[in-house]
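User: I'm putting together notes for a lab meeting next week and I want to include a structural view of one of the chains we've been expressing. I don't have a solved structure, so I'd like a prediction I can at least talk through. The sequence is below, exactly as it appears in our construct file.
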Amino acid sequence: MSIDFGNKEAREGYLQSKLDDLLDGINSSYGQALLDELMSRLEATVEDFNKEVDELMGSLKKSSEEKEKLIQQIKAGEMPSAEKASPDQEQGVEEPRDLSEWEKRLEGIR
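Assistant: Thanks for the context. Below is the predicted structure for the 110-residue chain, given as structure tokens.
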């Protein structure tokens, strides 16, 4: 039996038939309500999964493009703009930064 999982109706039909087999014993009391709730939760789970995969793929594509750009800059002998050091950094001088509350408390303990 070949099922086209790319088709929503085919997926739902497949799941419906499998769940019907599982729910035969309790079908008279809770079957339809339980099946409806289960189907809605499965649909929400699949939608969330697809959304997360799309976000991950977009992030992966963006990261890959940035890496390729950096590689091309390095091959061309350019220093990547994000990593260019300021004159102070080249001399080893650190710029002061704001401390978090946790870091301030640690400083006070010393």
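A couple of points you could mention at the meeting. Residues 8-84 form one domain. The chain has one domain: 8-84.

User: Perfect, that's what I needed.
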